[in-house]
Amino acid sequence: MSDTTNATIGEAVHQNRSLSLDTLMDHAFARLFRGLVYAQIWEDPVCDMRALALGPDDDVVCIASGGCNVMSYLTASPRSVTAVDLSPWHVELNRLKLAAARHLPDHAAFYSLFGHADRTGNVALIDRHILPQLDPAARAFWNGREGMRSRKSRFARGFHRFGVLGTFLGTLHLVARLGGVDPGKLLEARTPEEQCAFFDAEIAPLYRSPVIRFLARRPAALFGLGIPPAQHQKLAADADGDIVRVLEQRTRKLFCDFPVDRNYFAWQAASRRYRADGLGPVPPYLEAAHFDAVRAGAGRVTVLNRAVTDVLADLPAGSRSVYVLLDAQDWMTDAQLSALWQEITRTARPGARVLFRTGGAADILPGRIPGALLDQWIYDPVASARAFAEDRSAIYGGVHLYRRKG
User: Fold this and answer.
1) CA neighbor of 357 nearest in space, from 404, 390, 309
2) Would you give the DSSP letter of residue 160?
């Protein structure tokens, strides 16, 4: 990773400038983002696309993360997608997925690689069909080793179990099993009522554990969820400082509010995989019915290892219609937020939409960016509330949608 990338990641998460414990935690969190964080991202592209009314006339700018959202947007056939991320791992993963969609022989091979993600033949698929289509730097990345094995070998060893999030979920499973709970049993529930009964009997008591309560109140313990120290504070603020209560409420939504046979986030949380038979819920881009659209649209995506504000600064005025920021703004200072929205407003067409998530429930923009900027946008409370209610990932406090006036 270049020194420039390291500095950019640090700038994105360092809200504390003085020498303190908070500063050290910011640095520790920034280091995590130099590697793979999300093998599967934790935002629901289905509710996002519905709220945005994404379609063929749209030009999208988004945070790439692990690529599930970028690839899923292609099911709506947007005119272009510019995906940006500060993690080189995420950038290479997105480029690999796009090349796979274009060059693998069929959906079965594509699903083997990114759905099952644990088949012994997956490395051969990468070597035969994908790596020859990538540039030398990308080939070197996937052939490169971490420990004794190549990076590409992760797709034969359960890719969803890797990364910061996968490791974090594995640790939670270990803690749960030490408490006599097997989270995978949730997936045997046949109705939402059975899901809730399992949660109340097995999962909820874990939040009363002194160990869980101690760990949850330490910001570093939640780095595995991609929660930086500043966002940890916003989470706690929603429950008068009791972050344990917030985490329990959001886990309840994840495990109880949506049938497990339609919620792939619950499958990942409970087992770090999708259904072994390939018949369970998956992100839209992995569904067989969408493969042709994903293949056709893959060439319209550009993936960049840059900060989103810098990318926007290079785009023409009035050239974009959709912006998906995930929860990146929760990391930002007021100055960074203002710079971002200055570029969003400059590049936005009339009627453009911006969708983002927040760790806390409240919209974070009022009072933090200049009123002259915010006055050019209209907040959509109905679409925001609906998207939040429909978000199967359940981890965030709010989903927010703004529309450009005119």
Assistant:
1) 390
2) G
Chain segment 77-112, per-residue pLDDT in tens: 999 999 999 999 999 999 999 999 999 999 999 999
Provide the CATH number for the domain formed by 45-157+283-404 in this structure: 3.40.50.150
The size of the chain, in residues, is: 406
Lookup: tokens for 179: 């408490």
The alpha carbons of the chain give a radius of gyration, in whole angstroms, of 20
**333 in Cβ contact with 363 (< 8 Å):** no
pTM listed for this prediction: 0.90
Question: CA nearest 268: which of 282, 250, 287, 284?
Answer: 282
Count how many Cα atoms sit within 13 Å of the Cα of residue 66 in the half-sphere of its side chain.
Answer: 23
**Tens-digit pLDDT profile for residues 372-395:** 999 999 999 999 999 999 999 998
Tell me the sheet residues that pair with 357.
399
What is the domain partition of the chain in residue ranges?
3-32, 45-157+283-404, 163-271
Closest by CA to 192, choosing from 259, 253, 254, 266, is 259
CA torsion sign for 358, 281, 106, 139 is positive
